[in-house]
Specification:
This protein has five helices and nine strands; from the N terminus they run H-H-H-E-E-E-E-E-H-H-E-E-E-E. It has about 190 residues and is α+β, with helices and mostly antiparallel strands. The chain has a domain at about 50-180. The longest helix has 15 residues, at about 20-35. The protein is elongated.
């Protein structure tokens, strides 16, 4: 007699954990027991302030106009709002609020000064922070600026910008930069 061949039994596959189930299990374990020794804590993402502006052609045109003493204006959109950045050659403004300005130092150089009150008002807006750091980084003549940004506050050196100056009217001087402004000769 011929025997009917019997099929081999199917292997039972182990059920694998889905990524969602794994994340839920990790959350539960972290909540109950904390991280294990081998797990690394997530490092905070380092933000390169001003990098988004530095290579942009409109920002480069703005800085050229600022150094040449001419005017330039452009709009940016951030968080669904439209902001205007402009210069008239002596100051850089954000939505018609002066952020930094220049004062003549000598025939070839100007001093770059930050407007403290405007910076304090706008220190929680990302476009302002990126703009200020881009302006500071676009002047190679300036020493490494002491301006820092941490926890949504601006710091000048080790002190917060609000408390770094005793006089309320003083604005921080960032340093001198070379300009290309044409000065007219006074003829008598």
């Amino acid at each position: 007699m011929t025997e009917i061949p019997v099929k081999a039994p199917k292997k039972v596959k182990e059920k694998r954990q889905t990524p969602q189930e794994r994340l839920e299990a990790m959350r539960y374990n972290h909540m109950m027991y904390g991280p294990t020794e081998g797990e690394l804590k997530m490092t905070p993402k380092k933000v390169d302030y001003g990098a988004s502006f530095l290579k942009h052609p409109k920002f480069q045109s703005l800085m050229t106009a600022f150094k040449n003493g001419t005017s330039f204006k452009f709009d940016i959109t951030a968080d669904g709002h439209v902001f205007t950045i402009a210069t008239d050659g002596s100051h850089i403004s954000f939505n018609d609020k002066v952020l930094c300005y220049s004062r003549p130092l000598n025939k070839h150089e100007d001093n770059l000064i930050l407007d403290r009150t405007s910076l304090i008002q706008h220190q929680t807006k990302d476009p302002v922070i990126h703009l200020i750091f881009a302006v500071l980084r676009s002047f190679p003549e300036l020493d490494s600026p002491q301006l820092q940004y941490q926890h949504h506050r601006l710091y000048l050196g080790n002190d917060a910008l609000e408390s770094s100056y005793v006089e309320q009217s003083s604005n921080p001087l960032m340093g001198a930069y070379k300009h290309n402004k044409v000065h007219e000769r006074i003829r008598k």
